[in-house]
Amino acid sequence: MQKIKNISIFIVCLLIILASSILFIGCGDNENRIRLNEVTHSIFYAPLYAAYNLGYFEDEGLDVTIESATGSDASMTALLSGSADIVLVGPETVVYSQGTQDSPVVFGQLTQKDGSFFVSRDDVQDFSIEDLRGTTIIGGRQGGMPAMTLEYIIEQAGLTIGTNTAAGEVNLRTDVSFPMIGSEFVTSGCEYCTLFEPTATNLEKEGNGYVLDAVGEFSGYLPYTVFATKQSFLEDKSEQAEKFLNAVYRGYQYIATQSSLKAAEALAPSFSGMSTEELQIAVEQYLSIDAWCSSPVMTEQSFQKMMEIINSTSDTQYSATYSELVDNTIASKIAG
Fold first, then answer.
1. CA dihedral over 263, 273, 89, 148, signed as positive or negative
2. What's the sign of the alpha-carbon dihedral 326, 69, 71, 127?
3. Exposure of 18 by Cβ count < 10 A (0-12 exposed, 13-18 middle, 19+ buried)?
4. What domains sit in the chain, N to C, each tagged with a CATH number?
5. Can you tell me the distance from the alpha carbon of 28 to that of 62, in angstroms, rounded to the nearest whole number?
6. Rounded to whole angstroms, how far apart are CA atoms 228 and 78?
7. pLDDT digits (tens, 9 = 90+) for 80-94
8. C-alpha to C-alpha distance for 100 and 89, rounded to whole angstroms
9. What distance in Å separates the CA atoms of residue 26 and residue 112, rounded to the nearest whole number?
10. pLDDT tens across 39-74, in order?
11. Rounded to an integer, what distance in angstroms lies between the CA atom of residue 271 and that of residue 258?
12. pTM of the model as a whole
């Protein structure tokens, strides 16, 4: 009797192990699973969230998960370490990563202008870059696209960056990590900072500042946020990469052609802390400055402008080329 009992227990254990093994193999062998790591969570990336919430990824047969990082460097670390398949980052991070094994490449562009907003401690009317003279502004981490773009437009306006605000210099702070800019602005006494939505609107709602013009109005067109992945992923999973980018492109088309109300409703599940009206305003703001790419193709002209900004604001001179950094094979097919 004891022998039969022991055999029964053994069989049950064997079945449990077998079932677990099948389940593990099934999960690990999901060719259509894509782990996306985004540099931050922002309405600036609305086409991505529209695609996610409207089921466009599922339509393509993909199982997409989205994880937010605390900056492009953290996202790139996730990609290079293998914990992410695709990253949504500033293209400068791809430039910095050249030379690594299985180097990352850009295979689609999402935004074509700076998506941050000038936030002021006072309600500045008819804001211009000249208003920054003799003030301190928090502009993101050193080497990141937000800080470099801000430095570029300040210098293009003829102002000097330095710490002597009494002499009219603009003190551009780049010592604050991306997620801490809002809180540092509130507690530091600095006159200005730049923030993305929804952080900018939430800070104004709390009575801690005023949202002014979009930085993109001054910076003009440039490749600001892109989808990047390893060379090996494009080789091994080109079909999945194409389906992914096509779903995001459909998300853009929805945002661009539907009313701001419908766009806001599509985005709402991703931004539970914002009202429909606030989401509408953010969508309208980004549409008004033409922030989102109507084509996922990164052009060589925009690439060259990015390199100009990087090399004009950095102590290191980078020589990455368009052909090394960008693979438009999929993007060109989707754009038609």
1. positive
2. positive
3. exposed
4. 30-113+222-335 (3.40.190.10), 117-219 (3.40.190.10)
5. 15
6. 12
7. 999 999 999 999 999
8. 17
9. 39
10. 989 999 999 999 999 999 999 999 999 999 988 889
11. 19
12. 0.84
